[in-house]
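Re: folding output
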Amino acid sequence: MVTSRPLKVLHFDGSSAAKMLGGPMDTQDLTLWGKVRPEWTFREKERIVELCKWGQPYGLDGFLRMEMNFEIMLCDFSSGVQTVSFLNLAPTRGGPPKWNPPPKEDLRAQLSPSHPPPSSPMFYATVYRVMESGSWHNHFPGDTRIELDYSRLISLYDTATFPSLQSSRFNKKRLEHRLDGISGDDANMLQARIKKALTGNAQGSGVNWKVLMRVITNRYAERLEVLQYILNSTDPAIRDANSTVQVAHRHVRSILTPYTLYSATPPTNNNDLPKGGYPWASPVFELCATTHTTYMEGAEFLSLLTPSEVLILDSIKGVTKEICRVLVGIWAEGMEYGLADPTDKKPPTAFEHSAEIIGRWSKKVENLMAWLDWSHWLRCRPACSYEEMCYLPTWPFLYSKRPFPKADYSQDIDGEGPDESNWADPQPMCIRRVEPFVDEEIMQ
């Protein structure tokens, strides 16, 4: 099919098409009913019918979701799209093509242990094509057929709008965050915000937020990763601790060059150094943290922002502030230790504490990168061979052993769906992209 006009769709972010207990459907449930309804997790046909009924007053053509690839759940196949072809394709396992009516049983029956996936080489080749097509959109700019309207974005991490979710997330990893702890008032607020986003006429500021966020990640993602590598490369065969401190500091100095004012120098007398903090470095921090957003601080510009844009702007400011706090702190500490221009006659005092400094800086960078949690750093380590692809396990191909992922079709204790105990924190893995896709003993 091909679109005959731009389609108006509501995007549920994350793995919102994954038929799993534990959260993927939470946002859709709250949108429809104002509460999480886990009993609807596997009722896909009924879900799209209910979503389309709900979205009709807003002129929605469908809903955009993701599992290992993106999908659009269309409400009306005669509106906004045209049929390019309608084919009866041959099965991948051989034999004449035939048409089978859709099964009457629900998805849980299809996932039962009595219906295991086939194990032929052609089956694995076909499954790989599915995962391969999903990988095309893993990195920026994503699926270019989709144009997100950031001026209407709603985030359930907006603690000012949805405060009831804070306590349920405390001391939990991001992948463990759920929406079932939302209060009734916050659920009502979510529905009101969605309605306003779909019916409002606000044009927004016109800022290309996608590009601005990309500018920030481009500037710092790889540089922070290299800094982490330098600080962890303490093998004497590569460089000693003193050299590591110098190399790391020069790396940070070079990053901060666009913000380092000529007047920003530490006191020459160590006795004049303040106890705690680096006030002499404040102008450098200020420039680093605000260069990309300072022009947005005027009252006239702020009046153009939608609530969604205010949230995005605050997020960008918070991210750049934290990055610059860590980097400027490392730079300023190194400057006070004499790492700017060391000489043989006057070695930097940092050499007296090299191991301690490396440990301290390494911890700061590690904590910063964990807090940012950027997808740029989510990759296979070590890198995959040419005959392999780096694959982030995604429903339904989550739990597996190398060299090829497989679906987990086991039932949980209530018989409500697959056992998800092994899916808590999927990590990138190398899978084969040419035969043999699996070990021979697995095939048998």
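--- second protein (sequence, then structure) ---
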Amino acid sequence: MRQAEALADDFCRLNINFDAIYTSDLTRAKLTAKTVKDKQETTAGGATDVPFVELDLLREQSFGAGEGRPFGKKEKGLSLVAHYAKGKFPALHTRQQKFPGGESLDEMALRAEAVIDGVMRLELLKEGAEGKPRTVAVFSHGLFIGELVAAITRRDVEYQGNIDIRDLRGMRNTGWTRLEVSLKPESDHASQSSDIQTYFAVRLNGVNRHGHLSNLHRQKGGIGSSTHDPAQKDIRSFLGGKQKSAPAVSNVIPRPKPY
């Protein structure tokens, strides 16, 4: 809870007020989003009655039968089906692989595209109709956030960012990333139809910001003392090895567009 409160305080300090908030329906993301919303609505100058929308599309990647189980190496001569029958889950190495009943990275990327077309496109159209910028918050989870940011940048065919989106997989709890997104002029009319892909102009302006955590001691159980959401167990056991923090924007050598 303290991390969520520190994040809310940081947004107030930076004078960031949200016109709409979208959040995963899982407990951790929803708690953080609600804390930010409440802080904004009780702060002088902050917008009140901010739209607050829960979406299962914003959930973390599902590992199906592998949820909460440690991964290991694949045994030579043993099929994946045989591994699963023995309760063993070898690490996944491609974007197409998934555990029984789970979701692959490619399938999660399709879910990210659905968020873009069902949420972002409508918010950008609303921005155009109102004639003023809108600031929208999306509260989700580490792996899905990486896929969503990658999907957004793919909508900008001229994207020249110098950050590999895959580095987002090492994001801190309540760390946040800021994107400035606008409709490409030639997309204004086409974007009225959900059957035509909308193209964006994208600027990635800060990755894995977590300065608000600098004075907090780490607590067990995720955000504050919150327990795990029974709808989706802990996935840290699948992220073996030390996770890299996302590099600073000014210190990154330009890389090819991710994925």
